[in-house]
């Protein structure tokens, strides 16, 4: 059981920004990454639909098999984390949430920008985060419409992405935001652009990516459940997608600098039963 892989999923390639931290902190663990690219973006979908997709993806990962699930997607966590824990009580599940708490603790201007998806902003989990941790702090939220699609298309540095980000950031910068929360796992891939655009802000802006905290939590849960690997050799990662395999392979190459084989995750109907993975080339 301890050598069984850790499952990681996202609607698309965003979770790779969490996976790279997982691989660093837990270098002996094996991972299975599943990108639900047939259904990306999750952000504009209803919570009921995101729950149904997340459940199907979890079945797909359990069939690999996996010993723990990291929901490397803020939107799926916001809509489906409690549901997944109910549906899969034997599976430890680690989720994500926008880092509102650390941002509220460290802002000096009392003004924090939050970039996330509509699905995350419209969730109970986000409302509860705000109620618990954002008292006395003003949050400037933006659902970044179209940004996930641009990043999925590999456009992390181009003009179109720069213009969109500029439109998103301008009101935040003008308001005096000094802390920016990346509440979607796709967004760390536009960090170079964000840094460039924020360089002209009147005050320095600190960007918070929750991935390192999520990865430490994953290690804690593995340790508490006695599931840490005992292997001493480097772990391996398998990559699965519900979309075209070539798309995920080129994203891994572009974003993680690795050439990998990608498998296709297939299921007849998302609720009809456990899906399977085809080996590359089948
Ligand atoms: N990467 C996802 C997140 O962290 C979702 C992006 C999407 O599919 O809309 O929220």
In terms of topology, how is this protein built?
Elements: E1 5-10, H1 16-25, E2 31-35, H2 47-62, E3 66-71, H3 74-87, E4 93-94, H4 100-106, E5 111-115, H5 118-121, H6 124-133, E6 138-142, H7 147-152, H8 159-175, E7 179-182, H9 191-198, E8 206-208, H10 211-224, E9 237-241, H11 245-256, E10 262-266, E11 276-278
Parallel strand pairs: 1-2, 1-3, 2-9, 3-4, 5-6, 5-7, 7-8, 9-10
Antiparallel strand pairs: 10-11
Helix pairs in contact: 1-10, 2-3, 4-6, 8-9
Bound molecules: D-glutamic acid.
Give a description of the structure.
With 282 residues, the protein is of the alpha/beta class. It folds into 2 domains: 5-96 and 212-278, Rossmann fold; 100-209, Rossmann fold. Helix content is 42%, strand content 17%. It contains 11 helices and 11 strands. It has helices spanning 16-25, 47-62, 74-87, 100-106, 118-121, 124-133, 147-152, 159-175, 191-198, 211-224, 245-256; strands at 5-10, 31-35, 66-71, 93-94, 111-115, 138-142, 179-182, 206-208, 237-241, 262-266, 276-278. The strands form 2 sheets. Strands 4-3-1-2-9-10-11 form a 7-stranded mixed β-sheet, sandwiched between helices. Helix 1 links the parallel strand 1 (5-10) and strand 2 (31-35). Helix 1 (16-25) crosses helix 10 (211-224) and helix 8 packs across helix 9. Bound molecules: D-glutamic acid. D-glutamic acid is lined by residues 10-12, 14, 40-43, 73-75, 117, 120, 148, 184-186.
What attributes characterize this protein structure?
Rossmann fold; alpha/beta; 4-stranded parallel β-sheet; binds D-glutamic acid; 7-stranded mixed β-sheet; 282 residues; 11 strands; disordered C terminus; single chain; 2 domains; 11 helices; globular
């Amino acid at each position: 059981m301890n050598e069984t892989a850790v499952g990681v999923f996202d609607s698309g390639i965003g979770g790779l920004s969490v996976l790279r931290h997982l691989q660093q902190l837990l270098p002996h663990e094996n991972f299975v990454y599943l990108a639900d690219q047939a259904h990306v973006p999750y952000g504009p979908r209803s919570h009921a639909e995101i729950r149904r997709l997340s459940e199907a993806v979890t079945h797909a990962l359990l069939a690999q098999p996996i010993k723990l699930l990291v929901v490397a997607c803020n939107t799926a966590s916001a809509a489906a984390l409690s549901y997944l824990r109910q549906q899969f009580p034997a599976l430890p599940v680690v989720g994500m949430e926008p880092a509102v708490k650390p941002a509220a603790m460290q802002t000096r201007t009392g003004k924090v920008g939050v970039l996330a998806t509509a699905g995350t902003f419209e969730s109970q989990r986000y409302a509860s985060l705000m109620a618990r941790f954002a008292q006395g702090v003003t949050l400037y939220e933006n659902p970044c419409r179209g940004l996930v699609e641009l990043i999925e298309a590999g456009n992390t540095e181009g003009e179109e992405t720069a213009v969109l980000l500029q439109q998103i950031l301008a009101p935040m910068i003008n308001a005096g935001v000094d802390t920016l929360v990346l509440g979607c796992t796709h967004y760390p891939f536009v960090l170079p652009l964000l840094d460039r655009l924020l360089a002209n802000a009147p005050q320095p802006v600190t960007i918070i990516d929750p991935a390192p905290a999520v990865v430490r939590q994953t290690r804690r849960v593995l340790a508490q459940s006695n599931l840490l690997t005992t292997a001493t050799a480097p772990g391996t990662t398998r990559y699965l997608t519900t979309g075209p395999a070539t798309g995920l392979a080129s994203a891994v190459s572009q974003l993680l600098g690795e050439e990998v084989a990608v498998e296709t995750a297939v299921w007849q109907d998302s609720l009809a039963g456990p899906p399977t993975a085809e080996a590359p080339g089948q």
